[in-house]
Amino acid sequence: MTRPRLLIRRLHLWLGLSLGVLLVVLGFTGSALVFYVGIDEVLHPPARSRTDVPGPGWVSPIWDRAVATGRARWPDPAGTWSLEVTGAGGAIPARYYPASEHHDHHAERLMVWFAADGGRIVRADPWGGYLMSWLYEVHMHLLAGEGGRLVVGWGGAASLLLLLSGVVAWWPRGSWRKALALKRRAAPIRRVRDLHKLTGVGSAALLLVVVATGVLLALPEVKAALRFPASPPDPRSAAATGVQIPVARALAAARQAVPDGRLAFIDVPGAGDAPFRVRLAVPGDPHRRFPSSYVWIDQHSGRVLAVRDLRSGGTGATLSAWIRPLHDGSVGGLPIRIVAVLVGLMPAVLFATGLLHWRRRRAARTLALSRMTT
Fold this sequence. Notes:
- Keywords: Membrane, Transmembrane, Transmembrane helix.
- InterPro entries: PepSY-ass_TM (IPR005625).
- The protein has helices at about 5-35, 35-45, 60-75, 130-140, 145-170, 175-180, 190-220, 220-225, 245-255, 315-330, 335-370; strands spanning about 50-55, 80-85, 90, 90-95, 110-115, 120-125, 260-270, 275-280, 295, 305-310.
- The chain has about 375 residues and is of the alpha+beta class.
- The strands form two sheets. It has an eight-stranded antiparallel sheet, with helices on one face. A two-stranded antiparallel ribbon has the order 1-3.
- The radius of gyration is 25 Å and the shape is elongated.
- The model has no long low-confidence stretch (mean pLDDT about 90).
- The protein has two domains: about 5-35 and about 135-230 and about 330-370; about 50-125 and about 230-330, no CATH class.
- The protein has eleven helices and ten strands.
């Protein structure tokens, strides 16, 4: 074996031993999150959606009724609401953000589900206080806040090197048929090695995509360095005081600005100069649940303040829009999501077989040395 190839194998070994547990945790939680909504609805039937009836749309009075119901329960005038538009009947999911200086992904929030008519609350849980949201927090930052996010992001970057070094270390110099063979009658240590090899080769391409997109989601600073689109604009309403317009009026303005958009989220501001923000899916957007187009509306006058349409954002915006659906498997239908679940399980198989092979080789080497000295 040449010295460069030996060094690559050693790099692969020590990266695997160092990052294996992290990748197993992220893989298992990622697999569960592929079916996040479905699993959560099974665990909480009152908040279940209904696909047999349509949900409220652009002109429905239900949105204003839901906001009024939520504000009656949590009357903080500075609190903000984000209503999810699923397109289905049944419970209406929403997020309530109490007044806070922090408005990033780690901001405190309460997950709320309204009845189909918006007139009552059927479920309310703090984010991170129920199973699926807890798994999401583990997956995003290991329950360790900003430090955990950096560990996940840069650990993922190192994992790209782990995957690439594994492919280079395996790359056959002779027969491809031999390199892809699984010798079932070989010694146990060889069968474990073959299982590790074939699992890695078979899943390497998909793992590279999932890990690379995960790095970009965890490290927005890396996205910025790669010249992906900057953060969305942050327009403000013309005044900090005044009577807030109804949600229905804000939706009418957003619909006029982007007539062919499909509603995804309605962000309702609290008191102050923050605007309404309507999140839309335009034709060609790859993510159904979290699309990449927005309209900002003055909360007092109803004037459109800014529009961010994915179709006018250029190549960078398009590439950025594909990151999340490629990572969570939502780019396709059920078959792709099942593949995404299986890909998430591959790190556990690779870590277990790699660790077992390494330990057996160490044990065999120790035994050989002990025989030489006796």
